[in-house]
Every structure is written in structure tokens, then in C-alpha cells.
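Check my protein:
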Amino acid sequence: MDTKNTESIIEAILFAKGEPVSLKNIAYALGKKEEEANHIIENLMYKYEKEDRGLKIIKVDNSYQMCTNPNYFSYIKSLYNVPQKKTISQTLLETLAIVAYKQPITRAQIEHIRGVSCEHAINSLIKYELIEEKGRMDTIGKPILFGTTDYFLKYFGFSSLENMPNIDNEEDIKKQVEDEIFNLK
């Protein structure tokens, strides 16, 4: 086994483990003596340092760990400032299910099915980019027609609306939503 291959094995071990790995375990995995494994790791550490790579290998007691280079912390941090998926309340899920299965649908039609005002739920679903205006109904007042977005499909893991479970009536929709909520808990 040449040095390049041995270095690649060490990188794979440290990356896969994600926490410190003892020199003894690394040497065992390589089938080498600890002194020889230590020499290869120290050279590899030097290469990472010299090339100012995004990753580095650090020594922790008599173990080694692969970690990110602190010089690039600001870039990593920016990933964690990305807004996370919002938790969707039961009210929003019920409203969303109605829109998904009855689209295009007006706010008045949604409120008739739910039996309560849905303005806040609709505004929240628009804000979360799960529903959008799909047009206007050709009737007095020209009410807005709502439907789901491509993000809705992505969020719930559907490739198209045809992949959604078949539900025939409003009670089945409500039961399906309640089952989904129960499974999320």
C-alpha cells in the first residue's frame, strides 16, 4: 500500500467517524505500526495546513479528528442562518389539505368547508409559499382562486399532485390531515 492510498484511507476513517479516532485504532485499520501510522498522519496534517484546505486534521490526546478549518467558519455559519422549515399548525394543514384537494378554490369555498374564517391561514400559507393565487373566478367580485405551489410538492415529497393520496370527501381529507399530524408527533 503506497503513501497516497494510506492517506486516503486515513481521511476516509476520520471523515466517517466524525469524532477523534485513536492512533492505535488507525494503525490497526491500516495494518501498520503506531509509529508508522503517526508519521503518515503528521505528514497529512502538514499537507492540509500548507495548502490551507477547508478541512484539517487535529490531534486530541493520542487521537486524531478531521474537522473544518476555523478560517472558513464564517462561510459555514452562514449556512446555519438559513431559515429552517416552518412547523405547520393543524389549522394550516387542514386549510392546505382543502386547497390541495379542491384547487383551484376560493377563500369563501375553503371557509364553507372548514366552517370558520380562513384569512389568517391563507395568508400564512402564502407567506410559507405553499399556496398561491392561480387566477380569478369568473363571477361577481372576481374572487381569487388558490392552488398549491411547486414548493408544496417539494415540501411534502410529491413529484406531482397526482401522487397525493386519493381522498373523496371533506371528512376523509380532515381524517387524513389528522393522521398526518399524529404521525408527526
Q: What stands out?
A: The radius of gyration is 28 Å. Residues 13 and 145 are 55 Å apart (CA to CA). The first strand starts at residue 21 and ends at 22.
